[in-house]
Amino acid sequence: SRQTTFQDGGEEVEEGAVYNVTLKKVQIQQAANKGARWLGGEGDQLPPEHTVRQYETSKIRAIKAGTLEKLVENLLTAFGDADFSYISIFLSTYRAFASTKAVLELLLDRFGNLETSGHGEVANLNSFDSEVVLRAEIASVLRAWLDQCSEDFREPPDHTCLLKLLDYLKNNMPNSDMESKVQNLLKQFQNQEAETVDGFCSTSPSDLVDGEELEISNPEEFSSFQDHVVAEQLTYMDVMLFKKVVPYHCLGSIWSQRDKKENKNLAPTVRATITQFNTVTKCVVSTILGTKELKIQQRAKIIEKWIHIAHECRILKNFSSLRAIISALQSNSIYRLKTTWMCVSKDILLMYEELSEIFSDHDNYLTSRELLMKEATSKFANLDSSEKENQKKSQKRLQLQKNKGVMQGTVPYLGTFLTDLIMLDTALQDYVEGGLINFEKRRREFEVIAQIKLLQSSCNSYCLIPDQKFIQWFRSQRHLTEEESYRLSREVEAAADTNILSPKSQKSMVKRISTLFLGTDVITPPKEHPPKNSPLGGSSGESTDSASVSSCEFNHSETEDVCVTPISSPEDPLKKGSIGSDKGSGSTKCSIFDKGSGSDKCSIFDKASGPDGGPVSDKSSGSVTCSTSKVLPVYNRQNGGACIIRVSMDGINDSVYKSILITNQDRIPDVTQRALLKHNLEPDAVEDYELVQVISEDKELVFPRDANVFYGMNSHVNFDFILRKKA
């Protein structure tokens, strides 16, 4: 019998690199001698006194931190070190710390120059003492790069890196299958126009038939589309966009830079997915409120139709459009329609509540996280309903799907992954002592990236055909602005105005909501009345942040494209005394699949895993951070000498928060400078600002110039700060 155990082997330090070492021990039980069989023992049944235990021990080395040169060199040695996932991790995350050009030059010019490889760095690679082996290893890395991340080489119009690679292959591996592959990829890129992502939801006039104008939805036309057809078409659009998402665009260090002027085209594949999400949400609002003449019962029927469509999305395992629809129904302008909601049938209300509960914020959105992982690779949705009638309908619809014999993929709500990645980026350092790149951070990020890739792969199972009639209708909708939807909502049910939150309860809600958000770029909930001329989603129509790929209308402060109203499931509107609270789309909290944590705990990957998924000892699971604690710094809790605070700019982006990591060594100038950088302001202006902590509605804590923020802050209230220009 073979039994495998892992043991911490400490660290190994080389020039320019630090490695984690794990010892893998395999126990082999054997008979003491051939004559032992005469005693009646057969294999594993041998008496203990007639067996000996032998162990095979092998060393697994995983690079923890290193220079760029060492990390690239490790692409060639990782397989020999039994760090089998290293190449995939590096290729998925290197864009956070290096360019394609820099990595390719190191790989080809420094390690791949076979004419001079007898000297220099390559000669030091013990595993590669022959040119043939070296060529094979480089070919293996290049093949993985082209297979997993071919988009890295898309550089219109010149495609410099791809041409460099092609030149290398012609000289060193002529007539190889890889040379053909690169030539085909180059032709493919050259035949395509400069990369544009078809968002399916663009509402610019150029996308419409000549002479056709955007229009507010006609209720009869919308009603003519069957519920399952709408859900299938939304899923078709979501699938096409999600499959195009370039995973590294989701990395916190990249996505968090999108609001800089020079980065307006950054992460286009993620932006397209977000735009689609917001367009679905706006479509829901427009169809419900767009026609003022509707009777209450007719408006209730439209709400019922959208709940049925959301249920169909659930059957299709499309969590993106499902959440978009639920977010719209929980938005202030729809949620406040008390009389309309009272006309929605009880069965459908129960269905709505069950669908809303999927995105409950309880235990860090544990329900939606567990459901996503459970269904990521399952053939069909696992539907459970506490209401018998809904259970019958669900099973009937599911059986129809199964009868088609086509497996379903899974489309996730991308905001969950964006939040997790932005929090990892905030909590873990990019560099460690000696200026080495912190590769432990990249291993953590890859655990999230790998899940995105798995779900993208599952989307190949969908077999959906576009319905041009619906897509044309969907694209031609004129979406209501935030101000319009709010005004129409009040005109439809003016009596509900008395239920709008008072300033005091509004402040209380802000405080409750703020405990939900451990991500960055958070916008507080709406004030009592939306501001005039408030654009819906900024210039691009987007309304999201790293923490929330969320909806639209509900963002009463569009200083940045973020939306954060709570996604917790509302109670049955029939039982509510007030339907005035702002219910909208939400953002996920920071921990990554932290199943064991309650809502007051937020650790990210408490335990690390070994290269093959097995547990490793404490030492190797610790990450290279400013804190020696296994639990990473989080918002609203001081832990291991570090924590995450949120800082807004008074008078500029006063409703936009940025997450800042602080330690017990940080003083006011350090934190102020970091906050200015995060808000894309001049960091040299530190002396012009003062930092204050918001204690309550009418209390603030002002810090002296050289105060230690960590020890000076009030840790019993939310870690919310304001950076204010001095008078």
TrEMBL record:
Gene Ontology terms: cellular component: plasma membrane
Any one GO BP annotation for this protein: Ras protein signal transduction
N-terminal Ras-GEF domain: residues covered: 59-190
Ras-GEF domain mapped to chain residues: 226-495
Domain Ras-associating: 641-727
Keyword tags: Guanine-nucleotide releasing factor
Compositionally biased spans, kind Low complexity: 576-586
Single annotated GO MF: guanyl-nucleotide exchange factor activity
Biased composition range(s): Polar residues: 541-554
Region (Disordered): 521-586
PANTHER family: GUANINE NUCLEOTIDE EXCHANGE FACTOR, RAL GUANINE NUCLEOTIDE DISSOCIATION STIMULATOR-LIKE 1
Name of this protein: RGL1 protein
Organism: Tachuris rubrigastra
Encoding gene, per UniProt annotation: Rgl1
